[in-house]
Amino acid sequence: MTAFHYAVVIGASSGIGLETAKLLAKQGARVALVARRLPELQALQQQINAEYGADRALVFQHDVHEIQAVPDLFQRIAHELGGLDLVLYASGIFPQSRPNEYNTHNDAETITVNVIGAMAWLNEAAQRFSQTHSGTIAAISSVAGERGRRMGVSYNASKAALTSYLESLRNRLAVKGVSVVTIKPGYIQTDMTAGAKLPAFPPIASAQRAAEIIVAKLQKKNTVFYVPSFWRPIAFILRLIPSPIFRRMNI
Ligand SMILES: NC(=O)c1ccc[n+]([C@@H]2O[C@H](COP(=O)([O-])OP(=O)(O)OC[C@H]3O[C@@H](n4cnc5c(N)ncnc54)[C@H](OP(=O)(O)O)[C@@H]3O)[C@@H](O)[C@H]2O)c1
Known about the structure:
Blueprint: E1 6-10, H1 15-26, E2 30-35, H2 38-52, E3 57-61, H3 70-81, E4 86-89, H4 104-132, E5 136-140, H5 153-173, E6 179-185, E7 188-189, H6 191-194, E8 205-206, H7 207-219, E9 224-227, H8 231-240, H9 243-246
Parallel strand pairs: 1-2, 1-4, 2-3, 4-5, 5-6, 6-9, 7-8
């Protein structure tokens, strides 16, 4: 089991990223909190520092569209934290679209935040950790990436792309002793799902519960896992449904 000492969480201002950053700090890590909304980040920083010790959390305001800023910011964060052993990319968006809408702007935006931003941050982590032969790289993908469903078209595509990118990164870095982890949540109660009409089953988990599962699995170096774990058999069945049948299902 690995205890993390220095972690950066991109997308720490709300939801799963916020709860995971908080739990990492509670377990002893120094955490760098990255996102756009400064007041939310500062509120979390104050809470962490008050509960777990001064200077436990550092804040870095950043928009993941700014990929050219990432290399310098990544170095600055590692320096100011005093080290780095976990990089978690939790930033993501899920734009809602109407059934007859084909919106290239929304699609490009989703791919930029959910995939390009992840690549910009995790490529930096890969370079650093491949030299130190240590470290854990993780990102929050989704069960949504398993199939091309009618709903959330670009979101599904973005998570499929992220899952594939992470698998490639894992295969490249395994020989260097670096762990690359793909996190696949199902329905989690956060701002992202607040306005969405979700089915009564499978049940929705809290962001706190999701964070507990994520931190425990990261420490055990699980490489691909579902959150909560009952999504694994659901995802398995989803993948098995033949396309002609899947096409007729309104999911
Ligand atoms: N909730 C679910 O059911 C569910 C299921 C599967 C996967 N996920 C994934 O879990 C991750 C976290 O989502 P969540 O549910 O916790 O939703 P959330 O509360 O809306 O959190 C999204 C995070 O992404 C950050 N973000 C969005 N755009 C950004 C940008 N341009 N630059 C930097 N950061 C940006 C937000 O920070 P700022 O707005 O402050 O920048 C926020 O911290 C996402 O990747 C999501 O796709 C969620």
